[in-house]
What does this fold into?
Amino acid sequence: MTLPAASVIAATQAASARMADRESPFVFDDWYVAAFANELGTGLLARTLLGRGLVMYRSADGQVVAMEDRCPHRSMPLSSGELKDDHIICAYHGMRFNTQGDCVHVPSQSSCPRSMGVRTYATLERGPVIWIWMGDKESADPSRLPPQPWLGTGEWETSQGYLHLKASYVRLHENLMDLTHLSFLHAKSFGTPDYASAAYETEMGDGRFALMRNVVPTTLPPVWAESTGIKGQGQAARIVRSEFRSPGMHEVSVSFYDCTLAEAERETFRIRTAHLPTPETATSTHYFVVHGRDFAQQDKAMTAFMHAQLFVAFQEDVTGLALQEEVLARTPANDLYEFSVAADGPAVAMRRYLLSRVAGKA
It folds into this structure.
């Protein structure tokens, strides 16, 4: 087999240049998950988000405080200091900063220099997660936060977890957009051989991109067969919607039912998974996950079983994407080209949208 002609390679490289990738600047004017709500207490939490070092804590009244993790005096990380009476005390020279980031005390003199302070960030607490707006605080727009009513209601039983991904958040979004890889990367966890070839439909526009698959009939893998009780060969329907909601959120919604029963007789089991990627650096990502179901809400053993099984699969994604990132890193730019196929349509559109957001065109 011969390699593609130089003109074909040039065309694929030109197409790739119109999509966000590991080299693209971050989209700062949007909401990302900074932490799970239960991570923040009376201590200091240091975390790098979108390439910026932050320190976070809760004030005495329970409000979330997020500020730059750098003392403006001599650049000591504030997270190495002490939290006392809602003030961070720098570990180097004892400067104190309040919840607004203002310097309120300099031990070596009686007054603080004017305008000596630390940048703070807008946050929103919604259900189990803390969202942060990484752009200018004054421009923080709550309307850009994707609606997620199931995350904050008692109608869905949820579990949550975190993975550290050594790859770009763009590639994680792409991975989640087209779940064809379930038949291969997840063949030993929750994938099935018929998934990749199942018919699909797409939706694209207004910054939201989705791919829907109806896998009917199918045989469910253990994580879903055990939880729904639909265990027979070719007995199940698996209806999947995978949707990009924002740079910081991708949601997968799945319905299962026994397709051997008449519609009036069957029960539908619904699950949703909020995949919440927050870039750490260009090639590393904080991967927060919240999973929910609308059935057997009181069954804690089922919650533990499903959570463990799902995170086996999510770890397969983390391992696979890290391998992909290694290949991308060692491939010279002139030699790098990637072909797209029909199922990549929503993912390509999503990556173009992310690049347009960087350019301020969306």
